[in-house]
C-alpha cells in the first residue's frame, strides 16, 4: 500500500469517511498497516509537553491542566457515555469487535482485566488499547523500517481527525465513538506519539529523570487516558490531581516492569532502557548487558531497579481505591498481575538477559479473587 494515499484517493472509503478493510483483512495486518496506511495531511506541530527532564514530580502542571479540562468536559457529557453518537450501530459493533479481537490476541493480561468491566467501559478500553498498540507498532512493528518523522506527524494528524469526528478507518471509528462518549483529552494521546518520536531518536538514558520522561510519554499517558473511562468514585475525598497522578504512576510502574522483563530482548535491538549512571554505580556498563552474563553485580543492580518499580506500583494503589467501584477490580487485577512479573524476574535469579519472565495462567486466575477483595475496599478507608 502506498504511504502517501489520502482520503480522496483511498478506494476503501465508504460513506462518511469510513474505511473498511478489504476482504483479506487480518487482525495482524490491521495493526501493522498503521505504519503505512496513514493519510497524508499537512501537520501542525503541537507544543511539547511541559514536563521537565530535571526533577521527577514534574507532571504536576500537566495533570493540573488535564484535570481542569476534564472537569469542563464532565459538565458537558458526564462519565456515563451519555453523549450521542451518529454511527450506525452495526458498524460500531463490528468496529469494537475488531478492537476486542486485537486486544485479546495481543494483550492477554489487559484483556482479562477488561472482562471484569461494564460493557461501555470495556469497549472504550479496547478502542484505546488498539490505538496505543498501533502507535507503538509504528516504532516497533514489522513496518518500523518505513518509519520517518513525517509518518508520526501524519499519525498525529489522523489523531486530530479522530477527535474531530473524522475517523480514517474502522478501528479509528471505534475510538472516535469512545471520545464522543467519554470526556477524553487529546493531550495524553499526543504525548504518547511524542514518546514514540523520542524512542526513534534515543536508545540510551543517562539517568532516571530521562527514563522517567520516556516512561511518562509511552505509559503514564495510558493512565491519563484510562481514568476518564474508569471514573472516580463519587465518595472519594482525594483531589482529582492526586488520582490522575496515581494513574500516571501505574503506567510508570508497568513500563519499568516491561523494561526489566525485556532487557535481553531490547539489547538484541541495540537498546538499553536502563539509567547509565546507575549501571555505572554498580560497576556495570552496556558491555555487561550485551555479554548477557548474570553476575552478582547485575543481581544487586536489578534488586534496586525492581525496588523502584514496586515503589511506583505502591504509589498507584491509593489511587486505585479511589476509582469508581465498577472499575476497581480490573485495575487492581492488572496492577497485581503486572507486579507479579517482577516476582518472576526474582524467581529467575535476576536473569532477564537470557530469560523472559512471565506469569502463568493458573497464577493469573488465582490473582483475580485477591484483586476482588482489594477492590471492595472503600475510598474513605485510605488516608489522603
Ligand atoms: C488511579 C489509577 C491507579 C487508575 C488506573 C489507570 C490505569 C488503568 C492505568 C493503566 C496503565 C497501563 C496499563 C499502562 C500500560 C503501559 C505499557 C505497557 C506501555 C507500553 C509501551 C511501550 O513499551 P514497549 O515497546 O517496551 O512494550 P512492548 O514490548 O511493545 O509491549 C506500550 C506498548 C505503549 C502502548 C500501551 C499499550 C498498548 C497498553 C494500553 C493498555 C490499555 C489501554 C489497557 C488499560 C486497561 C486496564 C484494565 C489496566
Ligand atoms: Mn513496543
TrEMBL record:
Entry's EC annotation: 2.5.1.32
Keywords of the record: Carotenoid biosynthesis, Isoprene biosynthesis, Membrane, Transferase, Transmembrane, Transmembrane helix
InterPro entries, sorted: Isoprenoid_synthase_dom_sf (IPR008949), Squ/phyt_synthse (IPR002060), Squalene/phytoene_synthase_CS (IPR019845), Trans_IPPS_bact-type (IPR044843), Trans_IPPS_HH (IPR033904)
A Gene Ontology BP annotation from the UniProt entry: carotenoid biosynthetic process
Pathway per the UniProt entry: Carotenoid biosynthesis; phytoene biosynthesis; all-trans-phytoene from geranylgeranyl diphosphate: step 1/1
One Gene Ontology cellular component: plastid
Pfam families, sorted: SQS_PSY (PF00494)
This protein's record includes keyword Transit peptide: no
Known catalytic reactions: 2 (2E,6E,10E)-geranylgeranyl diphosphate = 15-cis-phytoene + 2 diphosphate
GO molecular-function terms, A-Z: 15-cis-phytoene synthase activity; geranylgeranyl diphosphate synthase activity; squalene synthase [NAD(P)H] activity
Lineage: superkingdom: Eukaryota
CDD domains: Trans_IPPS_HH (cd00683)
Transmembrane segments: 211-233
Coiled coil residues, start to end: none
Family from the record: Belongs to the phytoene/squalene synthase family.
Annotated protein name in UniProt: 15-cis-phytoene synthase
